Inverse folding.
């Protein structure tokens, strides 16, 4: 069994330029941005300047000036006040930064999705919806982390590193030079080990995900596994995956252990050397005890700030990569657009549809003609069936009629007006489609029905359901029309889903009806019910029918037979059967006696 595909890991960008999109979105909320910046600045100043200074005052004045306990208490109250302000500023920073992160992500998701809804089907033919969905989920999650955490951490640590470094040179220039020289010695090995640990951790997570995917895959196909006596093989395969996960985990644990030892040794070693050097300066009277205490405290903060900056830079690059991918989706332009001055379709609609010398190739197969020199006129109220072998170009006719694509050669007209001169929305308002499989949404029965006409009232909905032979089972649902139908209408049978799709098309009340293999996937009883519903739907409408089951199209006014993208025969069922051509051969495969069928 093949393992299910996992979404592609978002790649890092080469620079931080794409993050400007995030800044522009955040700039739409200036007050929240200002509060977040103020809270961040206050917390950084207190951490890098005020707290070390308070520690210095406590040591130099509280302990060494010989004052009473009240004097010492004064400096500790000062420190306690700073800690209180720091806590409040940190809380405000967290709230406003997190708020901005969620708000920016919500805005980006909406803009991306709104643009996706505008794009032509050709875009989704060339770009996997699964990959687009991955971008919508994983990339926006990365941006949420970048805005809500990473940028805040980066800015706070940058401010702390700059202010703290200046403060260290003001306190003790000699020790500051020693500290700055030692920071790379501490940070570089830790950064290298940290990068290696991140990579191995990601690999470990992937192996764990593989195990979970394998469990889901096998348990969901348990009847197949047991039916073919493959329990032992699946157990062995699972055991191998678990052992591989353990092997990767051992490497992760080893690297983490070495990194921990290195971190403790380097950090505490550096602090010890600084204390040693500072003690010498204290004994010579060059600096005070409070100064060395404040220096060590500020030095640790500065070193931590530089270390954090090296860590978050990689996350910022990943965020830039995610922003770049989402920017692509937001900037994508639809191929099929309304003309600058769209022409109005005639009122009232006649319901005619004409194809004149149309040739078309799909964008993903430019050298392969889907239809060639196709000419067909469907008169108002006429029912025309399109039949032929798979790949003959039948579905392409529907795609062009709804203007999901424009032909490279020829013209498609509705009521005499070329479709390229009309707003696509106006074209589609005059059409109703019943697809091969009743595509329903994870929503209530009511919402699925009124998808054809969202403002339809209760009476109109039930009239459509009654005409589509759907009323009885809809009334039997636990909550009637408000019953949630599950993903893809999973709580209904195939025939029921198809009848809901027909009711939806009835509510659309469009003059042109497109039926795409509407009964091909149904059993005999469901097909009869659906066929009855279709007869209601087809009354007084121009109808184009695609069908493989010729029994469903024998009553059509005209049957168009296609092969290799061309019309090879036209006529009614009796005439085409008598001609002995392609239609007669197809009929012979489906009827015992095609001459009398």
């Amino acid at each position: 069994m093949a393992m299910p595909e996992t979404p592609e890991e978002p790649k890092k960008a080469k620079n931080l330029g794409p993050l400007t999109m995030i800044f522009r979105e955040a700039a739409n909320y200036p007050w929240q941005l200002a509060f977040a910046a103020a809270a961040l600045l206050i917390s950084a100043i207190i951490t890098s300047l005020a707290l070390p200074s308070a520690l210095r005052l406590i040591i130099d004045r509280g302990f060494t000036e010989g004052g009473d306990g009240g004097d010492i208490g004064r400096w500790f109250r000062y420190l306690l006040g700073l800690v209180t302000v720091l806590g409040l500023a940190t809380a405000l920073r967290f709230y406003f930064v997190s708020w901005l992160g969620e708000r920016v992500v919500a805005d980006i998701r909406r803009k991306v999705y709104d643009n996706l809804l505008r794009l032509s089907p050709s875009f989704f033919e060339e770009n996997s919806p699964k990959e687009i969905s991955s971008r919508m989920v994983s990339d926006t999650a990365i941006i949420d982390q970048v805005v809500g955490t990473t940028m805040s951490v980066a800015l706070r640590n940058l401010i702390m590193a700059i202010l703290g470094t200046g403060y260290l040179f003001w306190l003790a220039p000699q020790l500051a030079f020693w500290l700055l020289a030692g920071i790379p010695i501490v940070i570089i090995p830790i950064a290298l080990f940290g990068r290696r640990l991140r990579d191995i951790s990601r690999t470990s997570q992937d192996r764990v995900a593989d195990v979970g995917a394998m469990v889901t895959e096998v348990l969901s196909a348990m009847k197949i596994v047991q039916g073919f006596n493959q329990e032992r093989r699946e157990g062995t395969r699972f055991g191998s995956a678990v052992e591989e996960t353990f092997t990767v985990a051992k490497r992760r644990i080893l690297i983490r252990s070495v990194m921990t030892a290195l971190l403790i040794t380097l950090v505490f070693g550096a602090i010890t050397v600084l204390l040693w050097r500072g003690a010498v300066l204290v004994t010579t009277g060059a600096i005070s005890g409070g100064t060395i205490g404040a220096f060590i405290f500020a030095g640790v903060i500065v070193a931590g700030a530089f270390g954090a900056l090296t860590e978050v830079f990689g996350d910022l690059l990943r965020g830039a990569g995610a922003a770049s991918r989402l920017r692509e989706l937001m900037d994508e332009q639809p191929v099929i657009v309304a003309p600058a001055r769209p022409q109005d379709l005639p009122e009232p609609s006649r319901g005619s549809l004409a194809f004149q010398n149309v040739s078309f190739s799909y964008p993903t197969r430019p050298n392969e003609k889907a239809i060639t020199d196709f000419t067909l006129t469907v008169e108002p109220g006429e029912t025309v069936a399109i039949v032929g072998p798979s790949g003959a170009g039948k579905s392409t006719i529907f795609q062009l009629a709804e203007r999901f694509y424009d032909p490279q050669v020829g013209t498609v007209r509705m009521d005499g007006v070329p479709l390229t001169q009309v707003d696509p929305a106006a074209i589609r308002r005059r059409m109703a489609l019943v697809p091969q499989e009743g595509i329903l949404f994870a929503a209530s029965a009511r919402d699925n029905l009124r998808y054809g006409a969202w403002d339809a009232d209760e009476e109109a909905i039930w009239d459509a359901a009654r005409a589509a032979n759907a009323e009885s089972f809809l009334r039997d649902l636990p909550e009637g029309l408000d019953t949630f139908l599950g993903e893809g209408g999973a709580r209904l049978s195939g025939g029921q889903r198809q009848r809901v799709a027909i009711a939806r098309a009835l509510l659309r009340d469009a003059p042109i009806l497109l039926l795409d293999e509407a009964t091909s996937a149904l059993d005999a009883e469901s097909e009869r019910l659906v066929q009855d519903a279709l007869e209601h739907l087809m009354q007084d409408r121009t109808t184009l029918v695609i069908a493989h089951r010729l029994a469903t199209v024998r009553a059509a006014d005209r049957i168009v037979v296609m092969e290799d993208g061309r019309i090879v025969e036209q006529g009614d069922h009796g005439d085409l059967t008598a001609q002995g051509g392609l239609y007669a051969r197809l009929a012979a495969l489906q009827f015992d006696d095609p001459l009398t069928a």
